[in-house]
Write a structure and sequence with these properties.
Elements (H helix, E strand, L loop, with lengths): L2 H23 L5 H26 L5 H26 L6 H24 L3 E3 L5 E3 L3 H25 L3 H26 L5 H23 L9 H14 L5 E7 L2 H8 L1 H18 L6 E6 L2 E6 L4 H13 L9 E7 L7 H29 L1
Antiparallel strand pairs: 1-2, 3-5, 3-6, 4-5
Length: 370
């Protein structure tokens, strides 16, 4: 490939990385996620720059080649660490940390040995780059990070109770496999910057996915927000699955809680209720969202919706607050006459209104009798 075109492609990728790094630094991501993603971006920039110098100046330089190999290993490790962070995997034992670093340690040892006997690569008499006996082993050792990362993302996507988290984990797993394929293809077409372009696109798409996830998450309760709820209900109605319940929940006397105990206590109550909803919704297909204010929405695809409602009430009643805390629930089963998600929501909301009305009447009767 023409050296000028080669350099242009690399510099475009580096500029993309720099822009993503700057936007990530200024973003509202959690600190751990931000640091791990910035590590991915920074190490890929170092790899791109080193590989560019190697390819456009003197590819016979042993040091430059070994630095490219080292930065490649660090890039695979950074992706692996990013996956661990996004999945919430933390190593407590030192042995676990050691095993997670083992592929990198082996790679560094092989690079050191390579300077003595060319076990990974060497430059022949014609000045061409040639694979050593252990080159394939080196590649496979680093690919372990992609393979394990993809496997973990797959497992955690099946365990996820939250629809949005399930989809995010699936995306991470897919891109680990994609990076593995891109790296493999690069070995066959070394004069084309396939890995550079492929990884840049992967990082860009993962960043966009992160931003979409943040847009879809309610910042207070960490549940799905109204935008995500509307999208999900639209998908549910389009599927025409008759075994679906829509639950609309409203916190009882929430305005009184804010007026008498302050908005800070009200926010704590909403966060606690959100946790109760997560604990109560034990089915993987359950979808939970904060509709707005003190209203929540659940899409339940199980067989015992009354049991779910009872679990919610029981869980909330166990909370310790200086005021009574409970929710009213309106429930509507999906049926074929529902053609728009808003009609389904209105039906559940009407039943919520009736329950709130009955609750208010019961409280009034109690006050009169007292």
């Amino acid at each position: 490939m023409n050296e000028v075109l080669f350099a242009e492609i690399y510099y475009i990728c580096v500029v993309i990385m720099l822009i993503l790094g700057f936007k990530t630094y200024r973003s509202m991501m959690k600190n751990a996620q931000k640091v791990s993603f910035l590590a991915v971006v920074f190490l890929h920039i170092l790899y791109f720059q080193t590989d560019l110098v190697r390819m456009t100046t003197n590819s016979q330089d042993l040091f430059l080649n070994e630095m490219c190999f080292l930065f490649f290993s660090l890039c695979t490790l950074s992706w692996f660490n990013y996956i661990q962070t996004m999945l919430g995997i933390h190593y407590v034992k030192k042995s676990q940390t050691f095993f997670s670093m083992l592929p990198l340690i082996i790679s560094v040892v092989l690079l050191l040995v390579n300077t003595l006997n060319g076990c990974l690569f060497y430059i022949d008499q014609s000045g061409d780059f040639q694979n050593g006996l252990l080159y394939v082993s080196y590649v496979l050792i680093n690919d372990i990070y992609y393979i394990i990362g993809a496997y973990q993302a797959y497992i955690y996507s099946h365990r996820a109770k939250n629809y949005q988290q399930k989809k995010s984990n699936q995306i991470l797993g897919i891109y680990m496999i994609f990076l593995l394929l891109v790296g493999t293809i690069q070995d066959f077409f070394r004069d084309i910057p396939i890995f550079c372009v492929g990884t840049s696109l992967s990082i860009l798409i993962v960043y966009i996915s992160l931003e979409e996830q943040m847009i879809s998450i309610d910042p207070l309760t960490q549940l799905n927000n109204r935008n995500r709820m509307e999208q999900y209900l639209f998908e549910c109605v389009r599927s025409q699955d008759l075994n679906m319940y829509l639950l609309v929940l409203d916190v009882n006397r929430f305005k009184k809680i804010n007026d008498e105990h302050g908005h800070a206590q009200g926010d704590l109550a909403l966060k606690a209720i959100a946790s109760c909803l997560k604990e109560s919704c034990i089915e993987k297909s359950d979808f939970i969202a904060r509709y707005g204010g003190d209203e929540f929405v659940i899409v339940y695809k199980g067989n015992d919706v009354e049991d779910l409602c009872q679990r919610i009430h029981d869980s909330i009643q166990k909370l310790s607050f200086p005021f009574d805390l409970d929710v009213s629930i309106g429930c509507a089963l999906y049926h074929k006459d529902i053609h728009k998600w808003s009609d389904w929501f209105i039906e559940a909301d009407k039943r919520l209104y009736n329950e709130k009305k009955n609750l208010k009447g019961a409280v009034t009767d109690k006050e009169v009798s007292a």
